[in-house]
Amino acid sequence: MLDRSALIDRVVVVLDPRKAYPEAAAADQALARRDWPACRAVLDAADGAARTTLIQILGERPRIEPFLREVLAADPSDSAAAAVLAVHLTRVAWRIRSTYQASLVTHRQFEGFRRRLVQADQVLQAAISYAPGDPAVWTARLPVARGLELGALESARRYAGLAAVDPHHLPGQLHRLVQLCPKWGGDWSQVDAFVNEAVRDLPDGAPNHALLAEAYIERAVGSVGDGHADTTLDLQRAMYRAAERSIFHPEFCRTPGWVRAASSFALAFSLTGDRAQAGRAWAVLGRYASAQPWTYLGDPRLAIRRTGIGRTWRTR
Amino acid sequence: MTGQQCVDGIPVLHAETSGPTRAGLVFRVGQADETLPRRGITHLVEHLALHSTGVADYHYNGMTGLTHTSFVSAGTPEQVVTYLADVCAALRELPVDRIVVEKDILRTEQIWHGNPDGMLIWRHGARDYGLPEYPEHTTALTEADLREWVARYFTRANAVLWVAGESVPDGLRLDLPDGERRPAPAPSSTLPSTPAWFAGSQPDVLWTGLVTAGPAGRVLADLLGRRLAQDLVVAGGLASATHASYDVLYGTVAQLTARAALMPDKRRVLLGAFVDLLASVAGCRITDEEVGTLVEAAMEQTRHAERTGRGLPRQAERLLAGVPLISYEQQVAALHEVTATDVAAAAREAYDSGLLRTPALDASWTGFAEAPWRSAKAVTGRAFRSKNGHSRLIVGPDGVTSEHGENVGTVRYDDCAVVLCRADGGRVLIGHDAITVAAEPAWYGDEAVREIDARVSPALRSDQPARTAEQIGTLGEPPRVRAPLWAVLRRDAPIYGFVARQLVGAAVLAFLGAILVMVGVTMATGNHAYGLGAIFVAPGAYLLQRQLRRMWQTVDPLIAR
Predict the structure, then answer these.
(1) B279 touches chain A (CB under 8 A)
(2) DSSP B157-212
(3) Cβ of A157 and B236 within 8 Å?
(4) What is the DSSP letter of B511?
(5) Which of B273, B279, B495 sits opposite A104 (nearest CB)?
(6) Most confident stretch, A51-60, A177-186, B233-242
């Protein structure tokens, strides 16, 4: 007989983070019902990076702006609602902006993009005045600064605000990493310095080791064709060591955000061409994957089918 | 201990202090009462009133402020009596022979004053509270102007005397003409909405906000000062120096000022941190302990002011404004009752009325409104094209407009503050909203200037000396704020090409799908060939929906919602 679930596991990639994290599903359903206290209860139960991850997932739900504005009007000090709203506005902004490539963006689209980001920043600014210690709010400010092109210094200031609250906040660190890349005006030495600093003294099983994989992906995808093999060799070695201490470690914890970390390693190993190692990463992932970082290669499903070597259905 | 009595019909506030006797005669008139053609008239009167005192062996001074002018001195009771009698005598009979000399002295003094902040002009325009930032135009003032000004403002009913010393000196006479109390003008505003911002040219960040005068506003200024120093200098290392202050503008309106000087190369980040700080103070990041500490300090300051009599000038201003006097005990008690909630409310009020000057940076991302720097409308009338063809000057029956690229400035005659008339023929019209239109005969020809002269009221004219050709300068290339139409079309051509290709392709395929569906349906219903019909309908319908969706996906992102 055919084992149906095994077949599905083998063929289907689940990109929806709400399926990977039960908390996210619960919170998202509560938000869909417009039941903020229930949603908030789920968020309050999570801590640190997991909470930020859930907030980023909730922000994806369409048409929640009026509802969240009501919630904020009733209680301006609710930094979770502010963070969800800001993430949502930022997503809407980027959707307006990024459907076409930069040269194909009209003036009107750009205005709409900017307006949403300004709104998001104001929401976050107000939230920070009430809850200066909320890492989710600081994290949400990072992509806003990038979109508004406020410059490297302002971005660094905002990351410093986050680091003062939580120096190892992975969702924020991922945004910071992107900002430091040459495509956003940084350079590789800054990326290396940042990543090395961030992964130093990490405990075993921490998902933050995935920053090395992300840095490798940025290099591999961002600098096509130039001779970067030598410089990335060290990074590759560090990445292999980091994977053992992170997703392959028995203490690797499956709290919200783990799929992204394992996906980063899976893609990074795929890019090195190491089928066996990528297969191990996919064994950790099972049927789950996160759209990021696969979107670097286009449509994530197609990208996983094309380059996701090591996945069970390809090896057999 | 403050006592109140009357000398020659003028209220006298007295505080018992040790040391030399100090006294100040305060009039309710200042720069905000002037108009632009008469800018500096109060200062000139003050200089003339002090001239007769000359070189005295005691300390004395005169001060012309925004809404008050005061004559102060310190010495023995006899010296103070002599000084005040001299001032009053000079005000009764102005030493008119000194006018020319004092005008020269004022011109020299003006060179000493540095560049003004620009904050008052941007907030209030070229009238009342915006006037102090304009240069003084005393050259054209006549003896009659001065007499009229003195008769209007320097009167018995419009003055208060304060004395700090053992007692009010014997033999004190204040012989001033009768008149009436002149309330301070209400402030005008050129800002359509606040909080607002404008790009300044100085390398620091400056912000002002208006609050209701009172203990909460005073505590807020101290709080702001502490936060600025803490967040920007100590923790952030972004600013080299910060400053916050609280000044009563008039009556019950006070102005908060916050300033942060830059570390080099950190303009952007300082602006971000500064705006964050303002928002955080206006939010609720104020604790009772913090307010408690600040209130203690403010109470101590108030007690010190009582011992030294330093609060007297402020009390005199209150009396002139018709605001009830409050004793030091009452002030201390009011401070004692200030809570974090009061300070937060004041912070909100200040934030909402705020005006921010950035170090030459765009601040639209902060969500503040951009303060208007050009006129919305041009007047209709006769147009004069500049000699280099880049600009136009339109002189109409209602006003004058200059068009320099996107920079449109309009001054209407009924809303004009002054017309500076240079001896070389140049005319500069300044509107009440501080918009300036320059009509240079060197650029637009003499005809334009003649038309303007025929239409402006003589009362608005202020005659100015001639300038050299370099000072007049030339019109540069107009600044382009928006790209011209052809550039927009050329820039956007790939977008429209892409969209058109997508739409045409999708439409053709959708049409094909529709035909397939129709053929299939005809077969099924006409010939009862259901199987064959389904073979046509299924791919047809699939094609149709795919292409319709593609069309929508192409159009959807163009409609920026």
Answers:
(1) yes
(2) GGEEEEEEESSPPTT-----------PPPPPP---SSSSEEEEESSSEEEEEEEEE
(3) yes
(4) H
(5) B495
(6) A51-60
SS3 at position B422 = strand
At A97, phi and psi to the nearest 5? Answer: -80, -45
From residue A108, alpha-carbon distances to A100, A132, B57, B322 in Å are: 13, 34, 72, 54
The model's pLDDT over A247-272, given as tens digits with 9 standing for 90+, comes to 999 999 899 999 999 999 999 998 88
Least confident of A155-164, B35-44, B353-362, B483-492: B483-492
Picking from A249, A301, A300, A304, the residue whose alpha carbon sits closest to that of residue A271 is A304
HEC profile of B241-278: EEEEEEEEEECCEEEEEEEEEECCCCHHHHHHHHHHHH
Q: How many CB atoms lie within 10 A of CB A207?
A: 26
Q: How far apart are CA B509 and CA B549, in angstroms?
A: 12
Using an 8 Å CB-CB cutoff, list chain A residues near B557.
95-96, 99-100, 109
The average confidence (pLDDT) of chain B is 86
List residues bridging with B410 in a β-sheet: B401
Q: How many CB atoms lie within 10 A of CB B462?
A: 22
Convert the pLDDT of each residue in B385-424 to its tens digit. 887 777 889 999 999 999 887 788 999 999 999 998 888 8
Residue B547 clears pLDDT 80, i.e. is over it: yes
DSSP B287-301: -HHHHHHHHHHHHHH
Looking at the partner chain, which of B269, B272, B495 has a beta carbon nearest the beta carbon of A106? B495
Dihedral sign for Cα atoms in the order B128, B132, B138, B139: negative
Give ipTM to 2 decimals: 0.78
> Considering only CB atoms, which chain B residues are within 8 Å of A118?
364-367
pLDDT above 70 covers what percent of chain B? Answer: 95
Nearest CB to B269: which of A77, A119, A153?
A153
Judged against a pLDDT cut of 60, whether residue A314 lies above it is answered with no
Contact A97, A103 (CB under 8 A): no
pLDDT at A25: 94
Task: State the pTM of this model.
Answer: 0.79
* A169 C-beta neighbours (distance < 10 Å), count: 23
- In the three-class reduction of DSSP (H, G, I as helix; E, B as strand; rest coil), residue A95 is classed as helix
With residue B239 as reference, give the H or E element that holds it.
Answer: strand B239-250
Chain-centroid distance of CA A60 in Å reads 13
The one-letter amino acid code at B554 reads T
- C-alpha to C-alpha distance for A248 and A246, rounded to whole angstroms: 6
Average pLDDT on A68-82 reads 94
Residues of chain B contacting A128 with CB distance shorter than 8 Å: 276, 279-280, 283
CA–CA–CA angle B161, B313, B158 (5° rounding): 45
Amino acid residing at B31: Q
Q: Is the pLDDT of residue A8 over 70?
A: no
Q: Are strands B159-165 and B10-16 parallel, antiparallel or unpaired?
A: parallel
What element of type H or E holds A269?
A: helix A258-272
DSSP string, B43-111: HHHHHHHHHTT-S-SSEEEEEE-SS-EEEEEEE-HHHHHHHHHHHHHHHHS--GGGHHHHHHHHHHHHH
Q: Which residues of B347-488 form beta strands (DSSP E)?
A: 355-359, 369-370, 382-385, 391-395, 399-404, 407-412, 416-422, 427-431, 436-439, 461-464
CB contact under 8 A, B367 and A148: no
Is B542 within 8 Å of chain A by CB?
no
pLDDT: which is higher, A75 or B116: A75
Contact B282 A129 (CB under 8 A): yes
Q: Is the pLDDT of residue B241 over 80?
A: yes
